[in-house]
Every structure is written in C-alpha cells, then in structure tokens.
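pasting for ref. prot 1 ->
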Amino acid sequence: NEFERRDRVKIRKIDKKAILAGLKSFCTKNVALKAIALVFAVLLWGYVLTDQKPMRTKIIPEVATSFDGEAELIAQGFCIRGNREEILQKVAVTVRTQITNYAYVNAGSISATISLRNISEAREYEIPIQANVSSALGVVQTVSPSSVKVQIDTLVTKTIPVTTSFTGELPNGYWADTDALTSTTRLDVTGAKTDISNITRAECVVDLNDKTSTIYSTFDVTMYDKDNNVVSSDILVGTLPSSTVRLPIYPMKSVPIDVLGSLVGTDDLAKNHEIVNAVATPATVRIVGEQSVLDAIDSILLTPIAVNGLNTTSTVESDLILPDGVRLLDSEKVSVLIEIQEMQMSQLFEQLEVQIVGTEKRANVTLDVSTVDLTVEGRYSLVSVLMRKDITVQVDVTGLAPGVYKLPLNVLVRDEAATVELTTTLSVTEVTVTITQQ
C-alpha cells in the first residue's frame, strides 16, 4: 500500500508538469498563427452582426402610457371620467429587435397610447393599448396589459358660488379691512357630467398669519358637494379653479381720548367748585393709517365741551376729532362723564378744651391733656363758616368707678349730620382719665 501511494503522488506530479509544459508550449509556439486565427474570428463575428443581423427579444417594463385624441374627444363634447393615474398605468412591452439595436431599445424609445378617436357616445369602452418603437429599432410583439377600460361621459360646464374665509391671525398692531374685500364670487367648472353635477359650492381660504400688507393674490379653491364633502379637483377638465383675493391690511394703533384737553371753561365753573374727574367711554379708540402718521399721534381730542358755570356732575356726548390721514375703527360718538364737586378746604382749631361728660356726684375727674388741636376738612361752603363755638371735644366717663382710664375723645362739629360729612383729625385721640372719690 505504501508503494501504491507513492506511485500515485509521482503520477500527479508528472501530470502537473505535463499540463504546465503543454500550456507553455501553446503560448510560445506558433504565436503568429494564433494571432491570425483570432483576427479572423473577430472579422467573422463582425460579419455575422452586420450582414446576417440576428434578432433578439427584449422586454421593457414600466413604459408610460398616454391618451391619443383627447383634444378631439373634448371638441365633440365628451371627456374621460375617473382617476387618470389608474387608467394611464405603466405597461410592459416586448420588442423584437436586431442585436445591433438591442442596447438602444428602452422605455424612452417606446410610446404606448390609448386611442380616444372614433368615440361617439358616453359609455364605458375597452380600448387596446398600442405601442410603437421609435427610429425603426424593432417591432412590438406584445403589450401587457393589452387593454384598459375607459369611462367616457358628457362634458359639461357649471357655474358655482365661491366664498372666502380666513384662517390665522394678523400680527399685533395690524388690521384687515374685510369690508373692502374683493374676491371671485362665481366660478365655471368643467368636467364629466356625472361628477360636475355633484359640486354645489367652492371656498377660498386665506391665511392671515404674519401678513402686514395688503393681500392681492390668487388662491386655490376647495370644492364641496351638497353634504359638505370635499370634491377632488382631479375630476375637472382644463384649468384648475382659483380665486383672486384683494384684502387691504393697515397698521393699527389704540390711542387714549384726551378729555381734559377737550373741556372749555374749566376756569369758569360755579364758585368754589372744581372738576375732580373727567372720563370718556370708551377711554381709548383704534385708528389705522400709515405707520408714520400713527407714530405721531399720542391721543385724540373731542369736539369742545363747555363746562362754564357747572356745579354738578353731568354726562355729555361728544364727537372725536380725527387727525388727517387716519381712519377710525370705533364709533365717532363718545360718552363723557364730568365729575364736578365743591372745592375742599381745611380749617385748624387750636387749643380746644376737652369737656368731660357723665361725671358722677362726689367724684373728682382729672385729665392728663386738657386741650387739643382739631383739623376739619370738607366742602368749602360748610368748613369756611365754622367757628370755635360750633365744635365740641368730649370724653365720656359715664358709669366709671374711681380709677385711672385711657379713654377716646369724641368730636361733634355743629350737628351729627355735619360731623359725618366732614373729616376731623385730632392732635390727640385719647386721654388718661383719673377718677377719685371726693
């Protein structure tokens, strides 16, 4: 067995050497003859390609389709109904071509059409898909799918109303003049009778976000049926409907009403009377105009309001005086409340004696403070006529046993009613009272 194994190894080595020697001999001997044979083979192959022109079959997938004769169909008063993308699906085309043209046959060199010619009524048709190869590159053998169903309907035009709505909000400080809005109010839509008859209205939506100047543009519209369902614009033939909208937008500013500056005769009120408040309702109004004009306006005056001789609060109406170049967004008439009251004055009474009331018999009462100062404030007609004899400052010790007490001081100015109306301020509000038995 060992001898057999060695013999096999020797045979393999001899075979390997023989093969290498044969290859070396093939590559080094008769080189010229071999080169001539190779050239001859190439020439023969070229002859076969150019003269014999062998044929090959090539399948081109994803070839786009298109309609042929659609313009003539529309001219006859008909149109295609349905989803065009579904109808114009891509097809696979098998082409038989010469081998020299094989590489040039592709989707771009093939046209696949659906002929709409010779259609004379509205109904469904099964139409074959025809394919052609450009520049005589070959012959179409098959088209898959080979046909397509096409629904033909009567072409009609319908006029529908168009409304304009808005979404979003203008930036602060701007105002849109919707009263001056101009837009398309009616549209003509054209398409298949079955579909067009369902459309009842159209709506144009204008976005106001970030708008700071007049909107003047064309917007797409959305169509709806009677149940307010959206109708796709794919059913339309021709130009898609749109609405032209013009909406003026202006800078806006809120300014206060200058009531006091509008009053005439404030120095000639009833004697000893004054204006304590003058308020307009509303207190501010909105104006629009060019930004440079608005920047120069800080307030708005009213037509002059005469207050000569007034001595009571009253409410009047007045009109705003608008500066040039602005427009008022609110009412021109303003209600003005003018509060007029008698002037206030104060009078100081010094060293008023504190009177003790409610002293028991056989009791001795002493105060740590026997006199106080009193300031009286109130309307001029009342305070100006007060005299010391009209004022009483008292401390009430009624029912108190002997002892030491801190008691408040009470003030009476003329009578109870006058005391309630006036404001009194004592220099001392309470005193120390000492009660002893006699």
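and prot 2 ->
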Amino acid sequence: MHTNVVVVTIDALRADRVGALGGRDLTPTIDTFSQDAATFTNAHSVINTTDPAVTSIQTGRYPLSHGVLNHGWRVTDQEKQSIETVPQLPEVLSDAGYRTAKFGRPLGRWHRNGFDRYPSQMESRIAFDEQNQPLVDKIGELLDNVNPVLKNIGERFYTTVDRFLPEQSTNSINYDHWRDRSEDRVIQNLASWIDGEKPFFSFVHLMDTHGPYTAPPELVKTYLEEFDYEVDKTEYEGWEIPSAFHAEVMRGDHPEIRHKYYFSETPSTAV
C-alpha cells in the first residue's frame, strides 16, 4: 500500500514564533497538529537561502553534495548542470506511480523536475488561483502549449515590466479579499487536487510570513504597542521601505511609527 506524502514549507517562519515550540500564540493550526505528531525541537535548515535549502529537502543532500549553493539569479550554470544530474524526490515518486504536484511559491528551473503540476510565475501574481486566471496567465498557458521556452520568455518580460508599474495605494487594498486570495486559496487548490486518484505527493510552499507585508496599519499599531522594543536606527540606515506605506507616512499618517522607526526624513523606498 502506497503512502501519500505532503511536504509543507513556510517561508521565513521563525521557530520562536511557533507556539508548539514555546513561541507566541500565533500558530494555532500547527500547534494543534503537533499534539498528535512527532515534533523535532533541534532541526535546522542546511542553509539560509531558499533555492539550495529546498533542493536539499528534495534530494536529501547537503548543498555541497547536490551542487546548488546560491539563490535566484546568483545560481551559476555550473550549479544548474550539477543539480540536473541528481535524482529528486518528485522524480523518484513519479517513476513509482505517484501523482505529483507543487502548490504555492513557484521557484522554477530544476525545482520543476518530476512534478505533473507546477505553478507558473504569472500564476503566483494572483496567489496561484487556477480557477480565476487573468489574461496574462491564459496567455502563459497558450505559450506553454506551443513551446515552454516561449512561456519562460513571456514570464521574464512580464516580471520585468511589472517592476516599473506604479504600486497600488495601500488605501485601496481590501485586506480581507487579499487574504482570501492568497495562502488560503493555495490550500483550497491543494485540497481539490488531493480529491483525486491516489497515491500522491505534493510540495506546498507558503509565503504567509514573507514580504510583501500587507497587514492593515491598525493591526500593525496594535502589535507595535503589544510587543514594544527599542530600535537601533543606525543599524538599519538605508533599508528600503515599501513605497505605498512610505507615501502614507510622508503625508502625516502613523506619526508614532515615523517618529520611532523612520531613519531620516527622506528614506529610500522600494521600486
């Protein structure tokens, strides 16, 4: 009898924020799950960047063994050639008759190997909602059907252009709608996919704790008051500040945040 396998990673989640590990009361679902599960209190990532860390999860090897040491555009051609020769868990399980799917953050490249279903970069722009894809995602699907290379070119072009588009004002964001479209939708897509033939393997990469942070300013204030601490402004001089939030602060909103956390009158802002 085959065992179904689901691997869930939560990007940038700190152990001291998990209630089951003695952290704050911020992870009720994980805490409940841990009551009937094996909990490892001395587990460490092999490295602090995503590409090599996820590759280690998928291969069971240290970065020096599988060959990927860098992340993102810093990954060299030599590293890519090295990892392509190493069998990965989705490939092994696919050969054994498993359905395989990735949900959540799409890293692409060799991370796609062995998956029947893998999210695109365009899909990530709407939190991987396959049932409500905008025009750019449908175009991506059409290009992929013609040639995957065309799809990759289209994704790179879209990502480059999108960086220079004006950022949406924080005032216009519907936070309840944003949360409904994001990681909750990833789990919904996973649940729909699981309700099919078995056995299956799925890798789920969630970004709840990672930027961009879209919490309402009122919630930010609440937590700042509850978990107040002194800030060494000199340590963070020059850090980028999200432009939408920066615009609010510069017009006079959130004076207590500006007084305590802003490092100059004209801080740098994100593109």
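The CA atoms of residues 127 and 184 lie 9 Å apart.
Strands lie at 5-10, 99-104, 200-206.
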